[in-house]
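Please fill in the sequence for the structure shown.

STRUCTURE ENCODING:
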């Protein structure tokens, strides 16, 4: 597989998933509105306004919250000249500003990127990563994380996380509205079978929609990892460096103690280091694609 074709394919799949997510969210709110007798247009408008305000908070403060939760510390060039030069050289090669560099005191090798755009980006690595990877492997990991920055992945995933949250909120709102309002005889006579159909579909979606939304979110997260792998390999012109790094990181048995479910998808490899999911249904709920598959793709480039 060529690097350029891999990048193009993953970008296309990302856009398709995003379109699917927006269509699914809008359809869901429309059905909830029809089932409850509200104006679907007004309900969708309210959802967009509410989501907009929440997005602003996520846009400006998500990186600070992530760094605070991990206990990472900002470094300067004098603190780790080798790491600083690697990040600096790759950032220049990628045509983006030098991100802030943080180090986490964790023995597990891992790394992540955060920040709302390339001008406010952060690259964070663990002490374990610095100790266990050679220079070429470290360059592969940094190139992967810089690709997340250049591709605006952290912003994209923050927006998707808000969408997932609102789907769960509106599903809960719908079920509570049914509980408190009931389905009056007046509404039944006024709307007939159509209202009953929307009500039945709404109840089914209220139960299934949070699961469906989470699956879409995780699928999108996995596609962005493949894209960052390919983009990182293009930046270093040496896919084997990242492939070898992924082997070492995924085979290490240590876990990131400060990681949580909200930050797990940011890391280059699942920080919880769970057993590889072989079953189809189990793999759907993984935050990351299988390391073995990523390594295979990199070595085929």
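FILLED IN BY: designer on duty
SEQUENCE:
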């Amino acid at each position: 597989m060529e690097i350029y074709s891999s990048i193009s394919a993953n970008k296309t799949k990302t856009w398709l998933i995003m379109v699917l997510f927006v269509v699914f969210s809008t359809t869901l709110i429309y059905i909830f509105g029809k089932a409850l007798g509200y104006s679907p247009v007004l309900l969708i408008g309210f959802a967009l306004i509410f989501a907009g305000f929440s997005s602003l908070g996520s846009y400006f403060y998500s990186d600070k919250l992530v760094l605070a939760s991990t206990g990472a510390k900002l470094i300067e060039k004098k603190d780790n000249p080798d790491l600083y030069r690697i990040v600096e050289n790759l950032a220049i090669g990628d045509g983006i500003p030098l991100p802030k560099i943080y180090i986490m005191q964790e023995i597990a090798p891992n790394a992540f990127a955060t920040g709302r755009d390339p001008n406010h980006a952060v690259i964070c690595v663990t002490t374990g990563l610095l100790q266990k990877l050679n220079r070429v492997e470290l360059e592969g990991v940094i190139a992967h994380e810089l690709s997340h920055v250049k591709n605006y992945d952290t912003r994209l995933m923050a927006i998707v996380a808000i969408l997932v949250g609102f789907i769960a909120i509106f599903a809960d709102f719908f079920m509570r509205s049914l509980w408190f309002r009931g389905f009056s005889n007046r509404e039944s006579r006024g709307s007939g079978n159509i209202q009953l159909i929307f009500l039945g579909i709404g109840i089914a979606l209220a139960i299934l929609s949070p699961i469906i939304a989470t699956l879409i979110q995780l699928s999108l997260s996995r596609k962005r990892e493949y894209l960052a792998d390919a983009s990182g390999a293009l930046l270093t012109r040496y896919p084997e460096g990242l492939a070898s790094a992924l082997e070492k990181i995924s085979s290490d048995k240590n876990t990131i103690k400060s990681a949580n479910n909200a930050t797990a998808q940011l890391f280059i490899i699942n920080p919880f280091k769970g057993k590889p999911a072989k079953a189809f249904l189990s793999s759907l709920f993984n935050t990351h694609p299988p390391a073995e598959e990523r390594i295979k793709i990199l070595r085929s480039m």
